[in-house]
TrEMBL record:
CDD domains on file: FlhG-like (cd02038)
GO biological-process terms attached to the record: negative regulation of cell division
The protein, known as: MinD/ParA family protein
MF term (GO), any: ATP binding
Amino acid sequence: MKDQAEGLRNLVQTQTEKGTRSTRIITVTSGKGGVGKSNFTLNFALSLQAQGYKVLVFDADIGLANIDVLMGVSSKFSLYHLLKKDKTIWDIIQKGSNDIEFIAGGSGFNDLLRLTDDELNYFADQVMQLNGYVDFIIFDTGAGLSKETLKFILAAEDTIVVTTPEPTSITDAYAIIKMVNTMGHDVSFKLVINRVTDSKEGKQTADKISLVAKQFLNLQIPTLGFVDDDPVVSKAVKRQIPFTIAYPYSSATKSIQTLADNYLKGYRVIETPSSGVKSFLNKMMNLLK
Ligand SMILES: Nc1ncnc2c1ncn2[C@@H]1O[C@H](COP(=O)(O)OP(=O)(O)O)[C@@H](O)[C@H]1O
Ligand SMILES: [Mg+2]
């Protein structure tokens, strides 16, 4: 029997890349919920956009999807409508704060595992069209390691693990890294320490994880940066305006801007065989076999 992913692989091979730029995929994840993953994803995306990059935020948090709520935008369509073939990818991309483009989540990713060949080809054909359309697609995934989240982690070029300095958050972040590594996958993890009192606390937290990862998994886990613990984040959530927009001079905003600058310093616009939407879909669909 032809495997379900074969049609997709053929499609991936025959599609020519329409865009001139390469699209980089970033997955944001965490061990524990409530560590600030969605706020980080959205405000990091807005910071990259402010630097002149085109960014699409893809809400892939099953059940707890809320990127739209953080922007006070009600989403008419979500990924669910794409998977049901009711809508095209262009129909479900919506504009939020500062005109940032996003795809709302929902229950869509549960369905991804049960797609027919026909639906899978439609999904791939639609997502493929994003290649070259934006510089970055950032997936906000659910906390913990579900099967769906694992696919996004494995297929992305960068996987950002968000943790706070709290011991429970640290151990859960390490657990995710360890699980993925134990499964034999080679993933480029990067740490973000959210809600730090100062950079000393950020560094101590990052060191705890990276030292253990080095010692027990022989993995180097670089740190992308720290985001200050700042009451404006909660205020911004209540106002449904991303904190980098509502409080542009706050310490949370400054720290996330520095972090985005650090990320961009390590980012090179080079088309490699392992980059872009095409490679992402290839990897993801190989995992569906
Ligand atoms: N840097 C921060 N400083 C202060 N509070 C924060 C910060 N980041 C997140 N929070 C708080 O944590 C809550 C949960 O954040 P959220 O992004 O929804 O987490 P997750 O997506 O990981 O579940 C926010 O509503 C806010 O009150
Ligand atoms: Mg969230």
